[in-house]
Every structure is written in C-alpha cells, then in structure tokens.
Amino acid sequence: MTVLKKHGYGGSPPSKEVAERRREAILARHKTNEFSESELVEFLNDAAPVVREAALATVVQLKLDAEKHILNALDDEDQGVRKRALELIIEFSDNQECVDKILFLLKDSSTFVIETACWVIGEIGNECENTVEIVSEVSRLALKHDDSLCREAAVACLGSLGHINGLAALLTALDDKPNVRRRATLALAPFEGPEVEEALKKKLKDRDLQTRQAAEDLLS
After folding, report:
1. Buried b (16+ CB within 10 A) or exposed e, 81-114
2. What's the CA gap between 113 and 93, in Å, rounded?
3. What pLDDT, on the 0 to 100 scale, is given for residue 139?
4. 16-21: long-range contacts, CB 8 A cutoff, minimum separation 24
5. In sequence order, what DSSP letters do the residues of 109-148 get, joined into one string?
6. Residues in CB range of 108: below 8 A, 6 or more apart
7. Distance CA 160, CA 29 (A)
8. pLDDT confidence bin for 34, thresholds 50/70/90
9. What number is the average pLDDT over the span 68-81?
10. CA atoms of 202 and 195, how far apart (whole Å)
11. Torsional sign, CA 61, 62, 63, 67
C-alpha cells in the first residue's frame, strides 16, 4: 500500500515509459538541436505530471515562450506542477497577470501549493504595484486558513514583506498554535514601536521554548 504524505507528491513511482519521457524533457535543456520546439511543447502537455514539471524548467532555460507556459501551468490539475510553476515564475513577476494568479493560488486546495505561493509573494510582493492588496490577502490567510502550516507560511510572508498593514495580523497570530506563534514572533523583526515591544515581552513567557527564544533574541 502506498502511503501518501500530506505535503508530498505521494503515489507510485513512474513507469519506465514515463521516466524515459521525463529524462528526455530534462536532456532537451542541453541538446536543443535534437528537439524541435513542438516536441518540447508536447512534454508540457504530457499525461504524466512529472514530465510536465521537468518540461517547465526546460522551456524557461531555453526561453521558449516561457512566461506563457508558466502561466498556463499555474492552472494545472496537478499540485506538483502548480508548485513547480510557482517556483519558476519569480523572473516574470513584473507581469501583473502573474501576480494575480499567484494571489489566486493562496486559495488553492493544496497546502503544498499555498506554502509555495506565500514564499513567492514574500520575495516579490514589495515590488508590485498592488502591495497593499497583497498584504491584505496574505493577512486574511494568516488569520483564517484552517491549516496551521498555511497560516505559518502566511505570517512568514508578512515578515518578509515587512509592510505595516500586516502588523495587526502578526500580533493576532502570536496567540495561534506553537508553530504559528514561533513564526509570527520571528516575523516581527522588521517592525518596531511600543506595541511590538510589548507583544515580544509577553512572548518571553510563552509555553513554547522556541517562541520564547525568538522573542528574547529580538528584544536583545
């Protein structure tokens, strides 16, 4: 019986045929003269998600209309493909359509994808025209998502952004589960003021050792 991990791909190993197609999609990055562009696009439409994942990195490396293919992959039915597309989309983050799709994936059905979307937003959010809207969406996720790992990823994102509009969500998250409290405490690093100092002092008495240590480090 195959055991599925909550935040992993799970499933059975690929067949020999699928593994070979994946290998060809990867090798195409280094043997461009042996593959036509249409053949590379076929890899992007392959029935096997692992082949589509491999093909994404290939079209980016070869600059074969990569932005369009990455955008399409953000709508893929497979969570692994969506995650890979998110990892590769950073270099196209000046495109508002890309930003809008990343924000949409904050509501994804996969925790796996949401965590990656939060990481990407933390990297690019301050360079976007709609930073305030982005902070609002991430703050909502930090406060209301059912999965504590998603809330943890969201507060880490707010810390990376360091935008004042995210402070209220971080202060509220200090009363969440231990993993979220820890991350929220660390995420207060870019902020200052009496409200922040008071919150950190309270965390010195937190039940979680790592949270207490984080607060102590930030106050020192």
Report:
1. bbbbbbebbeebbeeeebbebbbebbebebbbbb
2. 17
3. 98
4. 18/48, 18/50, 18/51, 21/46, 21/48, 21/51
5. S-HHHHHHHHHHHHHHGGGSTTHHHHHHHHHHHHHH-S-H
6. 79, 82, 114, 117
7. 33
8. low
9. 95
10. 11
11. negative
The rounded radius of gyration (Å) of the Cα atoms in the chain is 20
Compute the distance between CA of residue 117 and CA of residue 119 in angstroms, rounded to an integer: 5
Q: How many CB atoms lie within 10 A of CB 42?
A: 15
pLDDT at 3 over 70: no
Note whether 118 and 138 are within 8 A (CB): yes
Q: How many CB atoms lie within 10 A of CB 28?
A: 22
CA 45 to chain centre: 23
d(CA 13, CA 16): 9
**Which domains does the chain possess?**
130-220 (1.25.10.10)
Neighbouring residues of 97: CB distance < 8 A, sequence distance ≥ 6:
71
Nearest CA to 119 out of 93, 81, 143, 94 is that of 93
Token digits for 161?
Answer: 């952004």
Q: Which of 5-19, 22-36, 134-148 has the lowest mean pLDDT?
A: 5-19
Average of per-residue pLDDT across 39-50: 92
